[in-house]
Design goal:
Elements: H1 5-17, H2 33-40, E1 44-47, E2 61-66, E3 79-81, H3 86-101, E4 115-120, H4 128-140, E5 145-150, H5 156-160, H6 168-177, H7 182-189, E6 190-193, E7 196-199, H8 213-226, E8 231-236, H9 241-249, E9 252-256, H10 261-274, H11 280-283, E10 286-289, H12 304-310, H13 312-329
Parallel strand pairs: 1-2, 2-3, 4-8, 4-9, 5-7, 5-8, 9-10
Antiparallel strand pairs: 6-7
Helix pairs in contact: 1-3, 4-13, 6-7
Length: 330
């Protein structure tokens, strides 16, 4: 709410960066504020100083845009410094809202400096590991990439020759215990490959079902704020709660489907699931692909770098990425 040109620009910026299921409205005519609030019935109102209203009833959270940094000593700061990137203003608005609603929204805020991509295979995922890794390699040529695998029995450890050690489960447990030591926890589990970094998936599949939304919210938030990673590539196995939460965070979901009868049946069921009212936001992100195995299959016990650089998966990923960029421009 605000009658300045800045308020109008900020409205468009927030609308661009907000999660798909969040509706964003702007009110530039302050004389019609009461009508506006009655019509839209918002949960959050972000106001310029001149547009601040009196006490608002119900659970409505009113946040002011200020020209001075809000005092950090107050328990509840209901103001945001206006001279920041729009995505950062949105993130802080979500943080304030969470204190009142007890809902985690930060991890779903799309930002310009952290791109999240997910891979999922409803019809069996034996090709998903090499294909998603090839995607991480291609992205890693121009960016800092972190590869995270939430598949049960993914095959990552034997493929990379890793022995028993810290995994994604250890990272989640560590940040639950001592969030202020996030970087130490991250460093203890990160492995390095040519072109990207990665964390091994949980050894126990049951750990996947115990990952909470708050865990993922904190992880994405800290990666954005305290690391130099610009891309996170997720490889998802069973469609469990954590997998769906990851998909909601991601800008793209590449769905691997086999070109056979069984693959078509699984795709049909998955599409029927996505057609449900509350799943439309996921449907809009999904792109179906069919990896061409050829020379792209990895050979265990052999250096994976030559296979990543020369395999057909890499060429297919490059073509797919270029197509995605053209599609986005349209």
């Amino acid at each position: 709410m605000g009658d300045t040109r800045y308020a109008a620009r900020l409205t468009e910026c927030i609308r661009k960066n907000a999660p798909d299921y969040v509706e964003v409205f702007g009110c530039q005519c302050l004389d019609e504020t009461e009508i506006f609030l009655t019509k839209t019935q918002p949960d959050i109102v972000l106001c310029e100083s001149d547009a601040v209203q009196g006490e608002m009833a119900g659970s409505l959270v009113q946040i002011r845009l200020t020209e001075q940094m809000p005092e950090k000593t107050k328990e509840q700061v209901m103001a945001v410094f206006r001279y920041q990137r729009g995505s950062e203003i949105l993130r802080q608005v979500f943080q304030i809202y969470e204190k009142h609603s007890k809902k985690n929204l930060v991890c779903r805020c799309k930002t310009a400096d952290l791109e999240l991509t997910a891979f999922y295979a409803p019809g069996g995922h034996e090709l998903m590991l090499p294909f998603s890794i090839s995607y991480a390699v291609v992205c890693g040529a121009d960016a800092r990439v972190l590869y995270l695998n939430l598949c049960e029995f993914s095959g990552m450890a034997p493929l990379f020759g890793e022995k028993a050690g810290n995994t994604f489960s250890d990272l989640i447990y560590g940040i639950r215990q001592k969030q202020e030591q996030f970087l130490l926890c991250l460093q203890s589990v990160v492995h390095h490959a040519e072109g990207f970094d990665y964390i091994l998936p949980p050894e126990n599949p049951e750990d996947l079902y115990e990952i909470e939304e708050a865990d993922l919210a904190f992880l994405v938030k800290m990666i954005q704020e305290q690391t130099e990673y610009t891309h996170i590539v997720w490889s998802l196995g069973t469609f469990h709660r954590a997998a769906e939460q990851v998909m909601e965070c991601c800008g793209r979901i590449f769905c691997i489907v086999k070109e056979n009868a069984f693959g078509k049946y699984r795709k049909t069921e998955f599409e029927a699931f996505l057609n449900k009212d509350r799943k439309q936001r996921l449907k809009e992100k999904v792109t179906y692909i069919s990896p061409q195995a050829g020379n792209g299959i990895f050979v265990a016990g052999v250096d994976i770098l030559p296979q990543l650089q020369s395999g057909e998966f890499v060429e297919q990923v490059r073509g797919m990425t270029q197509y995605g960029e053209k599609e986005g421009e349209q």
